[in-house]
Amino acid sequence: MIATTSTTPNPSTAPALIVWGLTKTFCGRAGPVDALKEVSFNVMPGEFVALVGPSGCGKSTLLSIVAGLESPTTGRVVIDGRSIVEPGPDRGMVFQRDNLFPWLTVRENVRYSARLKSIRRTLSGAKRQDFDARCDQLIDIVGLSKFAKSYPSELSGGMRQRAALARALANQPRVLLMDEPFGALDAQTREEMQELLARLSERQGTTTLFVTHDVEEAVLLSDRIIVLAPHPGRIAREIKVDLPRPRTLEMRLEPEFSSVRADVLESLYSRQRRSLSESQLQSMVR
Amino acid sequence: MTDTAAPIIRDPALSATQPVAYGNAPAFVGERAQTQYLGLRTEIPRRLYISLAVTGFVVLFVVWCILSYGQFISRIFLPTPTAVVVAAGKLWESGLLTQDLWVSNLRILCGFTLAAVVAIPLGMLVGNLRAIEALLEPFLGFVRYMPVPAFIPLLMLYTGIGETPKILVIFIGTVVQMVVMVADVTKQTQSDLLRAAQVLGASRWELFSKVIWPASLPGILDICRLNLGWAWTYLVVAELVAANTGLGYRILKAQRFLQTDIIFLYIFIIGLLGVLSDQLFKLAARLLFPWARQRMRAE
Question: Is A282 buried (19+), middle (13-18) or exposed (0-12) by CB count in 10 A?
Answer without folding.
Answer: exposed
